[in-house]
Amino acid sequence: MNINQLHKCFLKCNGASTDTRYITPNAMFFALKGPTFNGNTFVETAIKKGAKYAITDDPKYVISPNCILVSNTLSTLQELAKYHREYLNISIIALTGSNGKTTTKELIDIVLKQRYKTVATVGNLNNHIGVPLTLLSMNKTTEMGIVEMGANHLKDIEFLCDIAQPDYGYITNFGKAHLEGFGGIEGVIKGKSELYNYLISKQKHIFFNADDTLQLKKTDHYAHKVGFSQNNDTYLNIKLKNTTNFIQLDVQNTLIQSKLIGAYNFTNLCASICIGNYFNITLNDIKLAIESYIPKNNRSQIIEKESNQIILDAYNANPTSMRAALVNFSNIKSDHKVVILGDMFELGSASNEEHQSVVNYIDTLNIDTAYLIGSHFFETNTVSKKIKFFNNFNGFKDFLKHKSFKNTTLLIKGSRAMALERVMDFLI
User: Fold this and answer.
1) Which of 257, 278, 279, 284 is nearest to 269 (CA)?
2) Boundaries of every domain in the chain
């Protein structure tokens, strides 16, 4: 069966799925394989749950006429997504970057929804599987797609661009994330820039932060670009008015009061305003959209518990985002401030240096106590009495059984694998 024939089958379905736990009737199931799982073993389950078709690359799992045998299920998923994207022929906005991708994507989506029927990446399904699934979730009623792209290595973004074929793109920033896979910060910059390279090669449009010298340099002399800036009136001028609590912005004498904390979220908000403005969303509608957005999924969430205020930012962490969160937290006005931080992963040979840098920085901050959890932090050194180390989460959990916080502001942040949102269950 060629890709055109498979696509005709797909158009009879209501979407694509790779997980039978969440499969819906009439879906197309792709039986993917990995180092620790074999999706082919779930083909029968998928069919019983109502999948219209099951795509498998193992002949012994072709158990009914609803099963379609292919040479490689993953590459078929990717090829079908690319074909479907070309079939829909809609505008696709892609975004990548070291920090803030998901928040920026959600902000862009809520702004553009004021005028267009959009489909955006769900959660952080932004890799070689997630991007195809996002594209396959779009249909003829979709007017605009917003595709988040993640990367751990060079050529990852280039590969995803070949599938999604974006018409527009934005890079949030270049930071110290996935240093192990990229081989250092220069590799990060080169890898994220693959989005700009694609757009320039196809003469497509770039959105960019004109106050970021790297972005300015990489888009220099390129005609199809749209920027925002605090300082340069050549671009859409957006001023940061207040970060004491929630971020407040001034756009053309219109104040926008967000529900996001931290100066690090300023450019995320700016990007959504810039893109909304480009696509003719009125400033009033942009304001309404942004002011209605409430962060979730452990990303800069403000949670009140007993007499305490908790900033739950435990979705992920790298050296750049960790420092940004600490800078913001240090500026918060509170009589009692405590940070609970977890290890940062995928830093390779830079891991010890980067964790030590965080420890050294904490010692300079206006906080009462810092609890650092994980083997990487445990290997660092300090003479500071306000920093306490725990080799693992269970050790910190046991400590919390005998510790209570009152009238305290807490920051919780760590890499995804640390799952520090668990702390919330044990805070007294």
Assistant:
1) 257
2) 3-74, 90-292, 301-425
